[in-house]
Write a structure and sequence with these properties.
Blueprint lengths: L15 H12 L13 H14 L5 H15 L27
Length: 101
């Protein structure tokens, strides 16, 4: 049964202007170069926590590398999760052979 929600939200990645603004506001530095595409506020939060852990808050180049790694880890296209009708994983065979007609 499908769920009904009062609000339907769609979260898009930040555009280049907003990504640069997020770099300034969330990381406290000017971006040292062109930021990768498809960044989200969550990517900046991860990098900020990582910087605090490793003491790299003032190293804009390292923060940029970590953002690039976050963007690369996402991959190009989202993948569906769960079971899909008609899909069979590679190397898996049917437990019961189909019946002869």
């Amino acid at each position: 049964m499908p769920r009904r929600f009062t609000l339907k939200l769609r979260f898009e990645p930040l555009d280049p202007v907003r990504a640069a603004l997020a770099f300034r506001r969330m990381l406290g530095l000017e971006p040292p170069g062109l930021l990768p595409e498809a960044l989200t506020p969550g990517d900046f939060a991860v990098v900020r926590r990582k910087a605090a852990l490793f003491g790299a808050e003032a190293d804009a180049a390292r923060l940029l590398r970590w953002l690039e790694e976050e963007a690369a880890a996402k991959g190009a296209a989202p993948r569906a999760i769960g079971f899909h009708a008609g899909h069979q994983a590679p190397g898996i065979t049917r437990a019961v052979p189909p019946r002869a007609a």
